Amino acid sequence: MVFIDADCFPASDDWLEGMAEKFSVSKLVILGAGGYVRKKGLLNKVIRFDTNMIALQYLSFAKAGLPYMGIGRNLGYKNELYDSIRGFKKHYHIKSGDDDLFVNEASNRKNTAICLDEKHITLSIPEEKFSKWILQKRRHLTTGKHYRFVHKLFLFLWPFSTVVFLFTSVVTIILHPIWYLAAGLLSIRYVLLWMVSWRVFKTLRSKDVWILLPILELFMLILMPILLLTNKRLYNQY
């Protein structure tokens, strides 16, 4: 079974063939990637940056043997795997995130493969109002608390370590006489991040956003804690 959302479209006529080719006797879950159509405006860049970074996370974790989520816009799994865990039975009480939680429950290092090729991605039309995108983000955040503990731990460590590193680097640059060492380490970090993220951003047709990575990363590091701290109270209002 291969899935795409109703508001998405394949990037090429080879999409389904590309996803199907990844299945094998041992590979029961295929994690694809989905991007957003490029449009004018800052919000479009933020949305595509956020989507690319999420793809970088879950595809990298899967490649490292720790698959924790997939996206319903581009996802495949065998029906025998679906039947073996009784489908979405454990998630009936949750409003959204069936694709995430199914992969979190059913996938492992042996039965999961990734499909990252520009011909095999899907594309969606992005939100054009900031408020609607925030609501979408809030809905997605309600799913993460149901992940396995080890996945939540690793997903917490990435932004936490980034904030600590950026904060200490900036303070050192401003106050310490060896500020140039901190500036050098900060530069190396961004060079490495640009290098490891290039393939995902290129595949998802977001090279224009890739170059803005330091600025947009900082924006998301500020926004995400605000959403997490206010999510339960505000999400229930919608």
User: Roughly how much helix do the residues carry, as a percent range?
Assistant: 55-70%
Helix/strand order: EEHEEHEHHEEHHHHH
Distance between the termini: 32 Å
Total helices: the number is: 9
Major pleated sheet: 4 strands, mixed
Shape: globular
Strand order of the largest sheet: 1-5-3-6
Average residue-wise pLDDT: 90
**Strand elements, count:** 7
Strand content: 5-15%
- As residue ranges, the low-confidence spans are 234-238
The number of domains is: 1
C-alpha-based Rg, rounded? 19 Å
Determine the structural class based on helices, strands and strand pairing. alpha/beta
Topology:
Elements: E1 2-3, E2 8-10, H1 15-21, E3 29-31, E4 34-36, H2 42-63, E5 75-77, H3 79-84, H4 98-106, E6 112-114, E7 122-124, H5 130-144, H6 149-175, H7 179-203, H8 207-210, H9 213-235
Parallel strand pairs: 3-6, 4-7
Antiparallel strand pairs: 1-5, 2-7, 3-5
Task: Provide a short characterization of the protein structure.
With 238 residues, the chain is an alpha/beta fold. The chain is 58% helix and 8% strand.
Q: What does this protein look like?
A:
The protein has helices at 15-21, 42-63, 79-84, 98-106, 130-144, 149-175, 179-203, 207-210, 213-235; strands spanning 2-3, 8-10, 29-31, 34-36, 75-77, 112-114, 122-124. It is an alpha/beta fold. The chain starts with a strand and ends with a helix.
